[in-house]
Fold this protein.
Amino acid sequence: MKIDIILLAGGASRRFGSDKLTAIFEGKPLYRYALDALSAVQDCLIRVVTRNPELENAARSLGFSLVSAPPPEEGIAASIRAGVAASRQDAFLCFFVCDQPYFDGETFQRFLKAFSASGKPYGRVCAGNRMGSPAIFPPWARDELLALTGDEGGRRILQKNQEALFLYPVIPQLLRDFDTPWEHADKSFSEKAETE
């Protein structure tokens, strides 16, 4: 099974108020956690959709392919379309976000193996009733993904294909994302997250 992983890292960090992905999270830039997780994944092509020079350099050093992110004003759909357009026509498309620092490479690899063994064409991780990233779409969903606009992700496509959807359960911590900075300068993301 061919799988292209598309790391979505082209957002504007509007709620964060500054460049979230290069902000330091527990000792290293937030984006580094996603790159480290993807470094552990085997037998997939990895494409990083970004406009951030620091992230581009780090991704390039790991041998990942770069995709120039469109201006972020439209929303996530523009980055999704760019990632899809740069991917192989016959590959399954696995989307991952860049702000889930606790989602590790070992879990990612297990998810991909379990998805491949499931025989289902769609897949995503979940924690109870909460659906999350990464999520996988079959090659024949390309046109639907390319038709997305605004802040619309692939949720609607997955919802209408529930019977064909493989769900991989993980602990809630792995799906925790960070959209806002800590309240005080001496607080870490982790401490802030515990108060939300």
In short: Confidence is low (pLDDT under 50) at residues 182-196. The longest helix spans residues 105-118.
